[in-house]
Amino acid sequence: MDGNGRWALARGLPRLAGHRAGTDNLRRVVEACVEFGVKYLTLYAFSTENWGRPIEEVRGLMRILEDVIDRELKNLHKNGVQIRHIGRLDRIRPSLQRKVHQAVETTKENDRLVLNVAFNYGGRDEIVCAIQRIIADNIPPEKVTVELVNQYLFTAGVPDPDLIIRTSGELRGSNFLIWQGAYAEWYFTPTFWPDFGKEELLEAIWEYSRRNRRFGQVSPPQEK
Ligand code: FPP
């Protein structure tokens, strides 16, 4: 969800106004995903590297997540959205931790759309965390397989992403789902996140549907 800061700057507004506008856009995109039958959506809301931003911006982003849970939880639950959190909660203030747990707990039986919120998330941190837990569980080296690692990631039980969309014209992955996205298709757009709407989401999905996914082979592997 990149480009909130530049969206605000272009309008002479503070950066946090861009994050607020980005949050308003979330509702449109989540509703569009439900409408289009998307089953899993992961939002990169705060990375392990974002702690390096000015303290007011970090605090503002924490507050925004809290407000979003307060404002949207009921509606998301009503619409059958299951909320999951990926990342670490340990550096997050206790009141926000409680809200995240409550959102996850309230919606855990829903199955229309699984909404993963990547908050205090980093792909490298996720892999380090998985390795630590594998070692702590005394798993012998020969038992460490791709499938086993999958079970130790924050995304355990969630399929690999088919399509990753990055807004705002940046052409990099920035530590997002680096393991799970090994064979994801990418869609890059210059549109800033607050302006990325339903039509462009549909355009991204259309473009994805025209890609020829070979997963390193000569022709697409047969569906299992
Ligand atoms: C990147 O834009 C955006 C972020 C670091 C935060 C995104 C967060 C939200 C949209 C709101 C919170 C989300 C949830 C799920 C509650 P940027 O600040 O890097 O923009 P710039 O590159 O133009 O400066």
Could you characterize the architecture of this molecule?
With 224 residues, the chain is of the alpha/beta class. It contains seven helices and five strands, in the order ααβαβαβααββα. It has one domain: Decaprenyl diphosphate synthase-like (Undecaprenyl pyrophosphate synthetase, 3-Layer(aba) Sandwich). The chain has helices at 4-9, 15-36, 55-78, 94-107, 123-136, 146-152, 198-209; strands at residues 40-47, 81-86, 113-121, 163-166, 185-188. Strands 1-3-2 form a three-stranded parallel sheet, with helices on both faces. The chain has a two-stranded parallel sheet with strand order 4-5. Helix 2 (15-36) packs parallel to helix 3 and helix 3 (55-78) packs parallel to helix 4 (94-107). The protein is globular, with a radius of gyration of 18 Å. The structure holds farnesyl diphosphate. Farnesyl diphosphate binds next to helix 1, helix 2, strand 1 and helix 3. Farnesyl diphosphate (FPP) binds at residues 1-6, 19, 22-23, 26, 43, 45, 50, 61, 64-65, 68, 117, 168.
What topology emerges from the helices and strands here?
Layout: H1 4-9, H2 15-36, E1 40-47, H3 55-78, E2 81-86, H4 94-107, E3 113-121, H5 123-136, H6 146-152, E4 163-166, E5 185-188, H7 198-209
Parallel strand pairs: 1-3, 2-3, 4-5
Bound molecules: farnesyl diphosphate
Reported for the largest beta sheet, the result is: 3 strands, parallel
CATH superfamily: Decaprenyl diphosphate synthase-like
CATH architecture: 3-Layer(aba) Sandwich
